[in-house]
Write a structure and sequence with these properties.
The chain has twelve helices and no strands. By secondary structure, the protein is mainly alpha-helical. It has one domain: Hypothetical protein af1432. The chain is globular and about 40 Å long. This is bis(5'-nucleosyl)-tetraphosphatase (symmetrical). Pfam families: HD.
Length: 208
């Protein structure tokens, strides 16, 4: 399926997803795609790139642990001890590999947005921020007051929304006694620091 023309890529991805992902997950993917488009437009980013990254973000979500580890090792993706305990955390970066190999996606910004959608990354691009936020905040996640506040924040300032969303995820992981990947903490700290800088700093460009 490499080198799909832009007009047929979405159709090819949807066919592939139907064969590899449960319908409930496909509905989530479509909601992430739509929210990514909306956030991209709101923040003057390329909506076509946001749509592509949103649609492709969970390609490897249902790969078995050994397959995730094997692809990650072959692609020379850094594997943290937490990844070895919980290989599903690799699905974002492995999904970026699959997007390239299966569908010929070669836009670095789209590939990075797919790879960063679960754990984030310090200094990630505005497009990566959009997909990262859409994955957690899409309407199917619920409508609690906290989620509604985070959705509002995502419309106002990407930098602030990323660290607030990291805090939300970290609280959940603590409450459920789950492992916290160090990159989640690094992402949270980086965006918190940027949000506290004057408007002329890096946070200004991320809240475009």
């Amino acid at each position: 399926m490499r080198d799909c023309p832009n007009g047929s890529l979405r159709e090819a991805v949807l066919v592939w997803l139907a064969q590899n992902v449960p319908d409930s997950r496909i509905q989530h993917i479509l909601r992430v795609e739509q929210m990514s488009i909306e956030l991209a437009r709101h923040h003057d980013l390329d909506p076509s790139k946001a749509a592509q990254a949103g649609l492709l973000h969970d390609l490897a979500k249902y790969f078995k642990p050994q397959r995730l580890l094997q692809i990650a090792q072959a692609a020379e993706i850094a594997i943290d001890p937490v990844d070895r305990l919980h290989p599903h955390l690799l699905h974002a970066e492995v999904g970026a590999v699959v997007a390239t190999q299966e569908f010929g996606v070669d836009d670095p910004e789209v590939i990075e947005a797919i790879a960063n959608h679960t754990l984030g990354r310090p200094g990630m691009s505005p497009l990566s921020c959009v997909v990262f936020l859409a994955d957690t905040l899409e309407p199917g996640r619920g409508n609690t007051p906290e989620l509604e506040q985070l959705r509002h924040a995502s419309q106002q300032n990407l930098t602030q929304a990323v660290w607030l969303t990291c805090d939300y995820s970290i609280r959940y992981l603590l409450e459920t006694r789950r492992s916290i990947h160090p990159r989640t903490l690094l992402t949270r700290n980086w965006f918190l620091q940027q949000a506290g800088r004057p408007a002329s700093g890096r946070s200004d460009s991320l809240s475009a």
